[in-house]
TrEMBL record:
This is arginine--tRNA ligase. Keywords: ATP-binding, Ligase, Nucleotide-binding. Residues 4-95 form the Arginyl tRNA synthetase N-terminal domain. Its EC number is 6.1.1.19. It is an enzyme of class 6 (ligase). It comes from Streptomyces cathayae. Transmembrane segments: none annotated. It catalyses: tRNA(Arg) + L-arginine + ATP = L-arginyl-tRNA(Arg) + AMP + diphosphate. Residues 245-361 form the DALR anticodon binding domain.
């Protein structure tokens, strides 16, 4: 069962409880899933019971127990092995062993040509936004990245900035940072809610860092934090988060090339390497992170998530290829598929931040 399928299963449980008169609430449009927090268990957790408790007139724990019974009844055939209620009403869901393979299949299928990328919304959401940035380099990069992220969630976006940016001297800045705007000033008749993008300004000129490092330096800190415009973003070592993200992606691409030379290809299946749970949890959380980054107008959430995915990918990489005289097996193909899925998520996330994901680093 994939995260999308599980979310639908939880929604179905809510509808069944409403239809049976066990809950008197409006069924939400979607249910958010995330890795369990402290004290939780299983692969996924949801706080939907806490959200429905007030309208239902019951405690969150009561709502969670109602939904737990429905999930155990409706979800057994779909891959749910257990449901546990923890804390004030968090629903923790455990899946049977096929879940990692299904998640990898979903990511790779979404990454194929002509498909909606993993974590992106299929079709328009109906939401329209006008992003308006300050005449300052960090604000312009944030507007550009936010437009990419919002569009990935089906939002119709127009981008503008203060009129001062229409001066010719800004052309080189916009081009050097890969920023594309629809216009400048307040003359746009676009009828949509206006969102002001005015983060803490950059303390220096980021252009000497180059487009990719400059954008990372301006996007990874939260909007209320002052970015660091230093050469630390260019060093190729493990204490540079951007390097770790791009290196992890490049390693997954190299593994695919090396595997092809050995005569085998990725094939989703059970992964027998210990320590892959953090990676699977991070990959499963990617759609939620994208939705949250769009909802909160916070590209830094996506940047930090990519670091989490990259760090969780590293323990898998040395196990992918056969060693010595070992022959490629189903286990190697499954590990290669998981590595490819991780690389797909990293590349897609970097693209939304406007940063290249090179195959060679």
């Amino acid at each position: 069962m994939t995260p999308v399928e599980l979310s639908r299963t939880v929604l179905h449980a809510v509808r069944r409880a409403v239809d049976a008169g066990e809950l008197r609430v409006t069924v939400p449009e979607r249910v958010a899933l995330a890795p369990p927090g402290p004290g939780g268990c299983g692969e996924y957790a949801t706080n939907v019971a806490l959200q429905l408790a007030g309208p239902a007139g019951h405690t969150p724990r009561h709502v969670a127990e109602v939904l737990r019974a429905r999930l155990l009844q409706d979800g057994q055939d779909g891959g749910i092995s257990d449901v546990v209620v923890t804390g004030p009403g968090f629903i923790n869901i455990s899946l049977r062993g096929a879940a990692p393979a299904a998640l990898v299949e979903e990511i790779l299928r979404a990454g194929s040509a002509g498909s909606t990328p993993y974590g992106h919304r299929y079709g328009a959401s109906g939401e329209r936004v006008l992003l308006h940035g300050a005449a300052e380099v960090r604000a312009l990069v944030q507007v550009d990245a936010l437009a990419r992220i919002l569009r990935s969630q089906g939002v119709e976006v127009r981008t503008r900035c203060d009129a001062a940016v229409s001066a010719p001297e800004w052309d080189a800045v916009l081009d050097g940072l890969g920023v594309v705007l629809d216009g400048a000033g307040d003359g746009d008749p676009y009828d949509a809610p206006r969102v002001e993008v005015r983060p803490v300004p950059a303390p220096g000129d980021p252009l000497p860092l180059g487009r990719d490092a400059a954008r990372w330096a301006l996007l990874r800190p939260a909007a209320h934090d002052r970015p660091r415009i230093t050469g630390e973003h260019l060093v190729q070592r493990e204490d540079n988060p951007l390097f770790r993200v791009r290196y992890a992606h490049a390693r997954t691409r190299a593994l695919l090339r090396n595997a092809a030379d050995l005569g085998f290809a990725p094939e989703p299946g059970p992964v027998d390497v210990s320590g892959t749970r953090p990676l699977l949890a991070a990959l499963a959380d990617h759609p939620r992170v994208l939705a949250a980054a769009a909802r909160h107008r916070a590209p830094d959430r996506l940047a930090r998530h990519l670091v989490t995915v990259a760090d969780a990918t590293q323990p898998l990489l040395p196990t992918v290829l056969p060693l010595g005289e070992e022959k490629p097996s189903a286990a190697h193909r499954a590990r290669l598929a998981l590595a490819e899925a991780a690389g797909t998520v990293l590349a897609g996330g970097l693209f939304l931040l406007g940063i290249d994901a090179p195959d060679h680093l």
